Amino acid sequence: MNKIIRFIKNNFVLILICFLFLGTRLFRISEIPSSVYWDEASIGYNAYSVLTTGRDEWGEFMPLHFRAFGEFKLPVYIYSVVASEFIFGLTPLAVRLPAVMYGLLSIIGLYLMVYELTKNKLLSLLSSFLFSITPWFFIFSRTGYEVTAGLTFFIWAIYLLLRSFERSKFLFIISTFLFVISAYSYNSFRILTPIVLGIIFIYHLYKRQFVVVALSVLILIASVVPLYKLYKEDSGLSRLQTVGSKSNLVINYFKNFSPKYLFVSGDTNLRSQIPQTGELYYLDALFLVLGILYILKSNNPKLYLVLGLLLIAPIPATITKENPHALRAILMSPILSVISAFGVYYFSSLFTKNKNILLTIIIVLYALSFEGYMYKFGTEYNNLSRSAWQHEYKQIFEKQKEGCVSDEFAQPYIFALFYQKVNPKEFITTRELNPVSDWGFSTVKSFGNFDFPKICKN
């Protein structure tokens, strides 16, 4: 009991931040957004199919890549939803709850990562607090997006990587394993992981730590083997070519740092952000500049890792068509929160006599900014984004149990499966498929008593 009391006392503020995060993410989680998007429906139903039959909607036994619509979803988040649906059933709550849990772990992981970099508890707490309330991360951490799992494992991999430098070098092997899991959680980390690991491999080879490198490389090679079938034998490569950007990559890259994007308009995708709301607060504009100045003036070379991660974070968004893209550049969110925290710390330290008062004022201003964001989210977001979340299909399939529904704009069959909780065996035995498109997407022509033509004839 004394150990528990001591732990709570030593980590009281971090615990409060975690409760703040949980409270704001669980708030009306099944109601806002108003309905599940087709990716959430696909994740939820494939998890339900695995839970009840051991196979996905295509009949594949415990797959590492879920064909879904043909874009091959990654396994980590879907299997997390399997566990959630075991408790809550095939519901929006079950699909979205793992994102909240992963988000919570990322808040804690960021605290540990910053503490490992700075040995400064205040800086670590500020980083976690700002990350927990940043608009960039808010919607993603309460909806069924795979990205939360990838980000969480990536942050914890960085943390263990940092610990491995001063402690056991074999922590790097565990770090490599977490990097691999992040890459099997969200596609952005399939691009970022090789960059980070490649640099670290070179460092360890320079230090003549050949055994550690060899074991980590074996883990990496083993993780790549399942990708061969996906990109060579299936349609994963054509999917990659389809989403790839043919625009000027330099221009694409710097769009992710546009002040208008960061502070004014944000991601224009209504599933990513409240309309006309920046990815960051206006307050961040000042503290990001001061935070970078703090890093450059510090005598701690470890802090340059933060800038390095910031520089590589937009790469996944840069090389794809939609850009800037908050989801694909998700690593920018915690890193910018850390830099803002450095800026807040640096600014308050300039006024030594009133440091605590000034720090309190800044935290209150951030809290008020978050309160304003939460109010807008709770009162306006559903009205602004219903169609983006395909609410119309929820209205149809919660009532309609048969008939014709046009597939002109989406994949209506997956909503029928989700909202009707169709038995996976019944779906597999009664469905009829349309031809697979050139880049792998497959549509369902009919199943059971439903038909999904381009246009329904009266």
TrEMBL record:
<feature type="transmembrane region" description="Helical">
    <location>
        <begin position="326"/>
        <end position="345"/>
    </location>
</feature>
<keyword id="KW-0808">Transferase</keyword>
<feature type="transmembrane region" description="Helical">
    <location>
        <begin position="303"/>
        <end position="320"/>
    </location>
</feature>
<feature type="transmembrane region" description="Helical">
    <location>
        <begin position="280"/>
        <end position="296"/>
    </location>
</feature>
<feature type="transmembrane region" description="Helical">
    <location>
        <begin position="357"/>
        <end position="375"/>
    </location>
</feature>
<feature type="transmembrane region" description="Helical">
    <location>
        <begin position="211"/>
        <end position="231"/>
    </location>
</feature>
<dbReference type="InterPro" id="IPR038731">
    <property type="entry name" value="RgtA/B/C-like"/>
</dbReference>
<keyword id="KW-0472">Membrane</keyword>
<dbReference type="Pfam" id="PF13231">
    <property type="entry name" value="PMT_2"/>
</dbReference>
<feature type="transmembrane region" description="Helical">
    <location>
        <begin position="191"/>
        <end position="206"/>
    </location>
</feature>
<keyword id="KW-0328">Glycosyltransferase</keyword>
<feature type="transmembrane region" description="Helical">
    <location>
        <begin position="93"/>
        <end position="115"/>
    </location>
</feature>
<dbReference type="GO" id="GO:0010041">
    <property type="term" value="P:response to iron(III) ion"/>
</dbReference>
<dbReference type="GO" id="GO:0009103">
    <property type="term" value="P:lipopolysaccharide biosynthetic process"/>
</dbReference>
<keyword id="KW-0812">Transmembrane</keyword>
<keyword id="KW-1133">Transmembrane helix</keyword>
<protein>
    <recommendedName>
        <fullName>Glycosyltransferase RgtA/B/C/D-like domain-containing protein</fullName>
    </recommendedName>
</protein>
<feature type="transmembrane region" description="Helical">
    <location>
        <begin position="145"/>
        <end position="162"/>
    </location>
</feature>
<keyword id="KW-1003">Cell membrane</keyword>
<feature type="transmembrane region" description="Helical">
    <location>
        <begin position="169"/>
        <end position="185"/>
    </location>
</feature>
<feature type="transmembrane region" description="Helical">
    <location>
        <begin position="122"/>
        <end position="139"/>
    </location>
</feature>
<feature type="domain" description="Glycosyltransferase RgtA/B/C/D-like">
    <location>
        <begin position="75"/>
        <end position="224"/>
    </location>
</feature>
<dbReference type="InterPro" id="IPR050297">
    <property type="entry name" value="LipidA_mod_glycosyltrf_83"/>
</dbReference>
<dbReference type="GO" id="GO:0005886">
    <property type="term" value="C:plasma membrane"/>
</dbReference>
<dbReference type="GO" id="GO:0016763">
    <property type="term" value="F:pentosyltransferase activity"/>
</dbReference>
